[in-house]
């Protein structure tokens, strides 16, 4: 895991006036010929893509002409997000400016989430980081990291406002996708009054929350429905784990995906089908990402700080939603989680 860089944000504190001013100056000071590259984390989710593309549309409104957006790995955007306004900004990572004047990074807690794009941070004239993970390692040059923000899109809109960009329906659709995915459709603890006030601002542009929700949460191929049936059917409940708070977990292999002809992104929603288990505070989904490599998602209902578990195992995230990459067999990965759980109990 990357050590916190000197000058990184102190844990828990949001951006200062100085940080905001530096970010505004970095954008306003761009010459007309500047090349701006927007990047986000690997396996981009609604917040990563929505914040990045919504902000990109804002930059376009400000007159930035040489503008690209990209993310590490294969360039395919998960089907539920392909309609997002601003998707024409996306380029495959190999086509992204090798040495942009400004790089802006969205929703990535550490450089390890940026894959091969991490070199752009070093080669860019200025690197601006927008994020909301408390575990953010402080990489990059200018930090707008607010651990109290429900989504990176909250930070993105804060910067767009300070840049004088007028919110329109296209920008709002992107930011609404980001906000609604990271708050679990406004169900999670992070859904503060400020979140609803922000949602109201976005909805006031005329976007349709019903249509957006249907597209991103409620539309899946039938093969994904069958796949979920199998994978949820093999879930295991361990009531004694986490000092009696309980653990429920399941796993999905690449073979499971192939058998049902499904792309990996459909498994993003799997954790929601598992975490409803009443008898477990902690839920876990282990998804195969390589021969002996697994992408692990962790959720907690409040008794356990799963970001501590994830950080102990090389990942990061939020107190009640975190993840890491595990190696070995499924049983080995789950055993490591079991071992970390008692040390991650929150005070009652
Ligand atoms: Mn996020």
Automatic annotation (TrEMBL):
Residues 266-337 form the DHHA1 domain. Transmembrane segments: none annotated. InterPro entries: DDH_dom, DHH_sf, DHHA1_dom, Oligoribo/pAp-PDE_c-di-AMP_PDE. It holds the Pfam family DHH. It comes from the Bacteria. Residues 35-178 form the DDH domain. One of its GO terms (molecular function) is nucleic acid binding. PANTHER family: BIFUNCTIONAL OLIGORIBONUCLEASE AND PAP PHOSPHATASE NRNA (PTHR47618:SF1). This is Phosphoesterase RecJ domain-containing protein.
């Amino acid at each position: 895991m990357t050590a916190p860089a000197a000058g990184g944000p102190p844990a828990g504190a949001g951006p200062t006036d100085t940080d905001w001013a530096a970010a505004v100056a970095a954008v306003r000071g761009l010459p007309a010929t500047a090349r701006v590259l927007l990047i986000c984390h690997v396996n981009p989710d609604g917040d990563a893509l929505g914040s990045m593309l919504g902000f990109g549309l804002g930059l376009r409104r400000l007159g930035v002409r040489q503008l690209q957006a990209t993310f590490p790995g294969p360039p395919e955007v998960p089907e539920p997000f392909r309609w997002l306004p601003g998707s024409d900004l996306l380029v495959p990572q190999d086509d992204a400016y090798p040495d942009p004047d400004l790089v802006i990074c969205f929703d990535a807690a550490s450089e390890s989430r940026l894959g091969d794009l991490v070199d752009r941070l070093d080669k860019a004239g200025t690197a601006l980081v927008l994020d909301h993970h408390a575990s953010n390692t402080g990489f990059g040059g200018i930090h707008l990291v607010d651990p109290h923000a429900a989504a990176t899109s909250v930070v993105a809109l804060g910067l767009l406002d300070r840049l004088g960009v007028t919110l329109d329906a296209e920008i709002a659709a992107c930011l609404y996708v980001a906000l609604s995915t990271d708050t679990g459709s406004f169900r999670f603890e992070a859904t503060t009054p400020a979140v609803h006030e922000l949602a109201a601002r976005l909805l006031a542009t005329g976007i349709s929350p019903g249509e957006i929700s249907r597209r991103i949460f409620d539309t899946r191929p039938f093969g994904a429905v069958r796949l979920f049936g199998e994978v949820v059917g093999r879930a295991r409940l361990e009531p004694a784990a986490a000092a009696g708070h309980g653990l429920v977990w399941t796993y999905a292999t690449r073979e499971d995906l192939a058998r049902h002809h499904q792309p990996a992104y459909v498994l993003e929603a799997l954790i929601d089908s598992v975490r409803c288990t009443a008898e477990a505070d902690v839920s876990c989904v282990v998804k195969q990402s390589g021969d002996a490599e697994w992408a692990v998602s962790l959720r907690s209902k409040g008794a356990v700080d799963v970001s501590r578990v994830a950080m102990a195992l090389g990942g990061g995230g939020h107190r009640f939603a975190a993840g890491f990459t595990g190696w070995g067999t499924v049983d080995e990965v789950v055993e490591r989680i079991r071992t970390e759980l008692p040390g991650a109990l929150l005070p009652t």
